[in-house]
Amino acid sequence: MQNMIKNAKVSTAVTPAAGVAAQTAINGTTLDMAGFESVLMLIRMGVITATAVTSIKAQQGDESDLSDAADLLATSQTIAADDDNETFLLDLVKPSKRYVRIVVTRGTADAVVSDGLYMQYNGKKAPESQGTGVNGELHVSPAEGTA
User: Fold this and answer.
1) Contact criterion met (CB below 8 Å) for 106 and 25
2) Domain tally for the chain?
3) Residue 86 φ/ψ, nearest 5 degrees
């Protein structure tokens, strides 16, 4: 039986504190892809001011601090000023470098990033744990009743 919680690793990409209303870029947490072939990057937007210029993109590098970060071709997505409370996804399969991150570019007017997550999948083995600050449970065929 397949299930996500035992076959994927979830990590925080952007915290709500980092995503407060501003006009500055946010570099997501650096993610180590060792042991995984793929990662789904999720960014949830909050309120975007009407004149804001906002976008997301993916970067990769060999250095664990991503001091050598390079943009990944064609991963940029424009986020419209009326995309309040929408979720944006980037799915990377087999990035050529070990470390990756998502970058949210914000300019001209304030944009809020509610939060962001990484979901690593296609691992060589099942993850031993979830990312820091990520908690969860697996329930298989639970009976009805008080939760």
Assistant:
1) yes
2) 1
3) -105, 160
